[in-house]
């Protein structure tokens, strides 16, 4: 039986583990954190990622756990709609809707499909040989979970994550290093991937996008069936109603990297407390300890390849992007099912790079362009941007949905 090692138990790594196990691989997932507890974050799973999840039997469960996006669009800070679409039009055009759920729910659904003992927590990969596939790990040392930005990696926090004793999960063994031989190593170790840095030492690595983000889950908030982003002068505030009466709120501001500290709920109220309803009420209902703040980085320069030797890079480790298109986790899911389909076949990992590199690079670039547009602060530039968005919607309403055809119209490979 072929053996695969997955480094990182985020959404991309878990999807890859499930897909590989279903194809007969012996899979081990190494996760440096002591528990799998994605906290404070929601997730939009678009049509392309739902199709990928369908190939591993998870799609329908995610649809049942989720809220439907419903009416969605972009608004001004005063609440006026600039662009708007509906779940019906999106579904009719792309064969599926966008569903909204807690990131923890997707992690739970994926990990539950893994064989017992597949995930080894509290275990840090300290070295990978791409030629032999040998992985060196140190286990039994507690690790702090780090939030690598929206839709990337394992997040920190408390209260709404998966229990460490869930199916497919075990705590790492006693302290000490060990070596594991693998036919395939999947580097799903996040935006600051040590494996990527070792494989491609000449690559410049992540670049600050110019914005800092906040994320928070709020009970009993939002407008059911209405998902929106509101744009102001260099700032964005988004609201996604989730199942069970939760609202996922996220925000960005154009500020220098390295800020933070203090009461971040108070900072959000300072920045957005006078924006349109229901934003002030949502922030008033938020708990300060549940607000996550992260500088947003992305891989502005594409990698020369998404593999080297027996190592395949996946998700943020391969193509970290700004959150503006909602495709970070979706592209990691695509990566995972394509990799499982091609690994061990004729073209192998070279086929994986050929299938994924150009597509993901385009989405990274496009998302970064939208991010830069959201950073306009000059009042004239902001007015012109908003006017162009509103005119585009009134004169050619199909363009908002149609612009995503290439992304959402993707279909997974079939045997």
Automatic annotation (TrEMBL):
Protein name: 2-polyprenyl-6-methoxyphenol hydroxylase
Region (Disordered), start-end ranges: 125-159
Protein's organism: Streptosporangium canum
Molecular function per GO: FAD binding; monooxygenase activity
Domain of life: Bacteria
Keyword Transmembrane helix in record: no
This protein's record includes keyword Oxidoreductase: yes
InterPro entries associated with the record: FAD-bd, FAD-dep_Monooxygenase_BioMet, FAD/NAD-bd_sf
Alphabetical list of Gene3D superfamilies matching this protein: FAD/NAD(P)-binding domain (3.50.50.60)
Keyword terms: Monooxygenase, Oxidoreductase
Residue intervals passing through the bilayer: none
Domain FAD-binding: 4-366
């Amino acid at each position: 039986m072929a053996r695969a090692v997955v480094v990182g138990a985020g959404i991309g790594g878990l999807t890859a583990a499930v897909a590989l196990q279903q194809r007969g691989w012996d899979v081990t997932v190494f996760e440096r954190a002591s528990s799998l507890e994605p906290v404070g974050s929601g997730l939009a799973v678009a049509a392309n990622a739902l199709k990928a999840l369908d190939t591993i039997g998870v799609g329908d469960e995610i649809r049942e756990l989720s809220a439907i996006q419903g009416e969605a669009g972009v608004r001004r800070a005063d609440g006026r709609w600039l662009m708007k679409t509906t779940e019906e039009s999106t579904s009719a055009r792309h064969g599926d809707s966008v569903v909204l759920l807690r990131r923890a729910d997707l992690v739970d659904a994926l990990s539950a499909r893994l064989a017992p003992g597949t995930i080894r927590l509290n275990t840090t990969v300290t070295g990978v040989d791409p030629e032999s596939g040998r992985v060196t790990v140190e286990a039994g040392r507690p690790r702090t979970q780090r939030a690598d930005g929206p839709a990337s990696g394992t997040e920190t926090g408390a209260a709404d994550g998966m229990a460490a004793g869930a199916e497919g999960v075990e705590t790492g063994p006693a302290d000490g290093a060990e070596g594991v031989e693998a036919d395939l190593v999947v580097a799903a170790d996040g935006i600051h991937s040590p494996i990527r840095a070792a494989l491609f030492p000449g690559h410049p690595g992540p670049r600050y996008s110019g914005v800092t983000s906040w994320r928070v889950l709020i009970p009993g908030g939002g407008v059911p069936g209405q998902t929106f982003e509101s744009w102001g002068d260099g700032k964005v505030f988004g609201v996604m109603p989730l199942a069970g009466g939760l609202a996922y709120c996220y925000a960005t501001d154009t500020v220098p990297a390295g800020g933070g500290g203090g009461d971040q709920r108070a900072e959000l109220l300072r920045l957005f407390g006078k924006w349109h309803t229901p934003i002030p009420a949502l922030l008033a209902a938020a708990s300060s300890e549940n607000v996550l703040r992260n500088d947003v980085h992305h891989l502005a320069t594409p990698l020369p390849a998404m593999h080297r030797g027996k190592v395949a890079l996946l998700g943020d480790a391969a193509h970290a992007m700004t959150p503006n298109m909602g495709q970070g986790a979706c592209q990691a899911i695509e990566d995972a099912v394509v990799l499982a389909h091609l690994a061990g076949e004729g073209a192998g990992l070279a086929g994986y790079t050929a299938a994924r590199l150009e597509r993901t690079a385009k989405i990274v670039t496009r998302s970064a362009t939208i991010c830069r547009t959201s950073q306009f602060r000059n009042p004239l530039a902001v007015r012109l941007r908003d006017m162009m968005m509103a005119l585009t919607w009134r004169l050619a309403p199909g363009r908002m949905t149609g612009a995503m055809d290439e992304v959402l119209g993707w279909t997974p490979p079939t045997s």
